[in-house]
Amino acid sequence: MIVKFNPVFSHTIWGGDKLRTDWGFDEKGDDIGECWSIAAHAHGDVSVSGGEFDGMKLSELWAEHRELFGNIQGDRFPLLVKIITAAGDLSIQVHPDDAYAREHENGSLGKTECWYVLDCEEDSKLVIGHNAKTKEELNKMIDEGRWTDFIREIPIKKGDFLTIVPGTVHAIKGGVTVIESQQNSDITYRVYDYDRLQNGKPRELHIDKSKDVITVPAASVEESVIAEDGSTGSKELLSCKYFDIFRVNVDGEEDFSEKRPFLLCTVINGEGKADDIDIKKGDSFMVSAGYEKIRFTGNMSLIISSLP
Ligand code: ZN
């Protein structure tokens, strides 16, 4: 079964209007920051669009129809996929791992995430990693507010894929759109927010927890970034303990036959069909368990995530 979803949106101080103007989503406002494409989280729970389960929340589908997910165990849906479009810079942040989140955040999951760059301006940059060589240097740079020394900005281009394991300092900068695939968690520690004010006040920082979880030294840029090679067909971008990520470029016809509990798919460009279902840029859907092989036709690109 192919299950399409209606996304939910979040409005943020760094948001813009691209999710409406570039992506065609029917959402008002000039502060739309995130489109939660596939999510079953307390802060965003998408609903099924059409078919037998029309209108049902993904969390309900997970609770009541586990057969669609290959009857796997788990008290919550494990993954979350969102499109993030930033008009302004996001705060500099870091996520804990499962063990730290369990102990310090009421049993929550940690967060491993990854970004595929969908769109950016010519000289766009992202923040990934930092320049401190030791824990002492890290603490000193943070305490003294030496942010330009501390933060590692790297140039990026469309199609770059970045892996952000727990402990990685990271931030999306203005003018950049990414699709983020992640563990189903919202635990974020904010290290620095460019001294901005929201409603007259700075947003809360989490300095001590950030110092606890930031990895020193940071992974190299080469370890963190893969460039798009433009090849037709499917390419595995990441395989880790929480999820596998593929990019699929369809030019005519392309079969995808991974034997997994389920596939989460988002069309990032173009249009076509998934078997006999029409799909276009911005659409997200799940291919349920028991589907031997899915045939994509048309001219489009997709990002697909699944459990390993
Ligand atoms: Zn993050």
Could you describe the 3D structure shown?
The chain is mainly beta. The protein is 14% helix and 41% strand. It is built from seven helices and 22 strands. A hairpin with a 2-residue loop joins strand 4 (40-41) and strand 5. The two termini are 20 Å apart. The mean pLDDT is 95. The chain binds zinc ion (ZN).
Q: How would you summarize this macromolecular structure in one to three sentences?
A:
By secondary structure, the protein is mainly beta. It has helices at 18-21, 58-64, 98-104, 135-143, 147-150, 207-213, 221-224, and strands at 2-6, 8-16, 32-38, 40-41, 44-45, 47-48, 79-85, 92-94, 113-119, 125-130, 151-155, 161-164, 170-171, 177-183, 189-192, 225-226, 233-239, 244-256, 263-274, 277-280, 284-287, 294-306.
Would you list the SSEs in sequence order as H and E? EEHEEEEHEEHEEHHEEEEEHHEEEEEEE
Shape call: globular
Unreliable stretches covering 5 or more consecutive residues? none
Structural class: mainly beta
How many distinct helices? 7
Strand content: 35-45%
Helical content stands at 10-25%
The ligands bound in this entry are:
zinc ion
The span between the termini is 20 Å
User: Whole-number average pLDDT?
Assistant: 95
| Major beta sheet summary | 8 strands, antiparallel
Radius of gyration: 19 Å
- Described by its quaternary structure, the protein is single chain
Total number of strands: 22
